[in-house]
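Quick one, C-alpha cells below:
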C-alpha cells in the first residue's frame, strides 16, 4: 500500500505510547487514581491504539485522503472510514456523543481510561511537532467538542496537570 501512511501510523501509535509513558512517569497520581481494571484497559488501549486504521474499512480511504488526490469519491470514502473509526475506537469523544431518536443529542460520560487515551492521542501530535505546549492551543480552539460535563472537567484537570508539570521542567 503506502509507505507514507504506514510510517505515519507507526509514528502516531509510537507517539501515543510515549505520551502514555510520560503520564505514568510524570503524573503517576493520575494513573494511580484509576482502578486496576481501568489501568489495565488504559495500557491495552495504548498498545492497540487506532488498530482499526490498518483494516480494509479504513486503511485505503485514509491513505487516499491524506496521501492522494482528494476527489469527491475519495472524500466520501474517507467520511465512511472516519465514521467507522470513531464507532470502533472509544478514545474518540464522538463515540460517546448520542444522537437520540426522539429529540436532540446527549453526551455520555467517558470512562477515565478512554479520556486519558484521547488526551494521549491529541498530545501525540504536539510531540511530533516538538512543541509540547501545542495541545493547549489545540484544545482552546476545539472547545466546541461535545463532552459530558464530568468528562470535560476531567480532561481540563489532566491538561492543567500536564501544563504545570511542563512548566516545572522548563
Amino acid at each position: 500500500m503506502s509507505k507514507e501512511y504506514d510510517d505515519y501510523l507507526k509514528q502516531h501509535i509510537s507517539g501515543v505510547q510515549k505520551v502514555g509513558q510520560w503520564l505514568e512517569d510524570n503524573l503517576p497520581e493520575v494513573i494511580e487514581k484509576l482502578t486496576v481494571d481501568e489501568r489495565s484497559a488504559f495500557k491495552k488501549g495504548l498498545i492497540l491504539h487506532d488498530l482499526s486504521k490498518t483494516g480494509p474499512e479504513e486503511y485505503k480511504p485514509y491513505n487516499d485522503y491524506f496521501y492522494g488526490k482528494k476527489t469527491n469519491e475519495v472524500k466520501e470514502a474517507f467520511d465512511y472510514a472516519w465514521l467507522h473509526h470513531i464507532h470502533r475506537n472509544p478514545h474518540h469523544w464522538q463515540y460517546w456523543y448520542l444522537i437520540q431518536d426522539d429529540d436532540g443529542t446527549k453526551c455520555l460520560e467517558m470512562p477515565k481510561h478512554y479520556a486519558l487515551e484521547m488526551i494521549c492521542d491529541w498530545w501525540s501530535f504536539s510531540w511530533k511537532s516538538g512543541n509540547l505546549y501545542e495541545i493547549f492551543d489545540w484544545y482552546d480552539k476545539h472547545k466546541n467538542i461535545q463532552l459530558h460535563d464530568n468528562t470535560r472537567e476531567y480532561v481540563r484537570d489532566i491538561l492543567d496537570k500536564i501544563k504545570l508539570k511542563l512548566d516545572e521542567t522548563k
